[in-house]
Design goal:
- By secondary structure, the chain is an alpha/beta fold.
- It folds into two domains: about 1-160 and about 350-360, Glycogen Phosphorylase B (Rossmann fold, 3-Layer(aba) Sandwich); about 165-345, 3-Layer(aba) Sandwich (Rossmann fold).
- Helix content is about 40%, strand content about 20%.
- It has 14 helices and 13 strands.
- It has helices spanning about 10, 20-35, 65-75, 85-100, 115-130, 140-145, 190-200, 220-230, 250-260, 280-285, 300-305, 315-325, 330-345, 350-360; strands spanning about 1-10, 40-45, 50-55, 60-65, 80, 105-110, 135-140, 155, 180-185, 210-215, 235-240, 265, 290-295.
- The strands form two sheets. An eight-stranded mixed β-sheet has the order 3-4-2-1-5-6-7-8, sandwiched between helices.
- Strand 9, helix 7 (about 190-200) and strand 10 form a beta-alpha-beta unit.
- The longest helix has 18 residues, at about 330-345.
Length: about 350
């Protein structure tokens, strides 16, 4: 078996930090190291054409144009797993799939979701009228429940989290101060403005220690402006991460930060700013962080029944009230609840990859 992961370079490059990137890296690491499967990233939209060998089983192949990437795919792969493509390339890709369906199995991972009926119609047109001859992988139950009504070859898999993130309740540190953390992109859609308001409100409160670990997008004016403000203020501890500089040390840092975190703050403005089951939410759960978040999409099904959900509006007053009434015992019980929820969901990388490979193997 030889597998190609095909998509736009800026959407899932191996060296970038983000939900799609983590999802892909973790699956591929297991496929190549544990199962010995040959995997290539086929990335188009690159400034230069090159090949980077990560190990003997994994290569990154960069192409400037979509057509060049397609020419390589039809040569020596068994499966093609499609990531994000530019809209203008999708009809061309449908024709390519039709032309090569006898030689290759084409699959797709559906990362995002929208309640917009036009958007849903477009997804279904791709899935049914311009079909993939392999499988459509959905990463949230709402995606799965909607799409399976229209097509048969649909599989639900959660984003994978490495076993190193998972801890038991007795392994969670007992901090003198309650550690509050935001970890993610500096973007209004991620709720960063709510986080800033909350942490500013708590800056004199001796019960809490607040930190923002932020990634910003250089081509997003709002993201840049918020990042610059954070860099120039002294009231909130801000640690910057480079989106284009993933390495093993970054994963290790994230794992350690979450292990030390008591409460992760994820006040999404909308789930369209992230993948439909956020990787950070699952990483936090594996690390037994209580998560203050909003009940968008399938987040309530994933995180479970809890008082840590806050309304989609009036985030600050509800969160302040929750924190004012927070006790050590409530935090302990929330960790126990999350631990049990993790056993039900089974989103460790090994389990997720087994399910994916079982699908690929028919």
């Amino acid at each position: 078996m030889k597998v190609a992961f095909l998509g736009l370079k800026d959407a899932f490059d191996y060296f970038q930090i983000g939900g799609v990137e983590s999802f892909t890296r973790r699956i591929i690491f297991q496929m190549t190291t544990r199962y010995g499967i040959n995997v290539d990233y086929i990335l188009y939209g690159a400034q230069e054409e090159k090949t980077v060998e990560i190990n003997s089983k994994l290569k990154l192949r960069y192409f400037s144009k979509f057509e060049y990437a397609l020419n390589v795919i039809k040569t020596d792969y068994t499966h093609v797993i499609t990531m994000y493509l530019l809209p203008r390339d999708r009809l061309k890709y449908a024709y390519f799939r039709q032309k090569n369906k006898d030689d290759l199995l084409f699959h797709r991972i559906l990362f995002s979701w929208s309640d917009n009926p036009v958007w849903k119609g477009f997804v279904l047109t791709e899935a049914k009228m311009l079909p993939y001859n392999g499988c459509l992988f959905c990463i949230s139950k709402r995606q799965y429940n909607y799409v399976k009504k229209w097509i048969d070859n649909v599989v639900y898999i959660l984003p994978p989290v490495p076993k190193e993130f998972f801890i038991k309740p007795e392994e969670k540190p007992n901090n003198k101060k309650i550690k509050l953390t935001f970890l993610g992109r500096i973007d209004p859609g991620k709720g960063i403005l709510d986080v800033i308001k909350l942490f500013m409100e708590l800056k004199e409160n001796s019960r809490f220690q607040s930190t923002i670990y932020g990634i910003y997008l250089q081509n997003n004016k709002k993201s840049v402006a918020i990042r610059n403000w954070l860099k120039n203020q002294r009231d909130i501890k801000y640690i910057e991460l480079d989106r284009k500089n993933h390495c093993q040390q970054v994963d290790e840092m994230v794992k350690n930060v979450l292990k030390e975190t008591d409460i992760l703050i994820l006040p999404y403005g909308t789930l369209s700013s992230t993948i439909d089951t956020p990787v950070t939410l699952l990483e936090a759960m594996a690390s037994l962080c209580a998560v203050i978040t909003k009940p968008f999409g399938n987040i309530p099904d994933i995180y479970g029944k809890t008082e840590f959900f806050v309304p989609k509006k009036n985030f600050l007053p509800y969160t302040m009230n929750l924190l004012d009434n927070l006790t050590t015992e409530k935090l302990r019980k929330e960790r126990e609840r999350i631990y049990k929820q993790n056993q039900k969901l089974n989103f460790g990388t090994e389990a997720v990859v087994k399910k994916l490979l079982a699908t690929l193997n028919g």
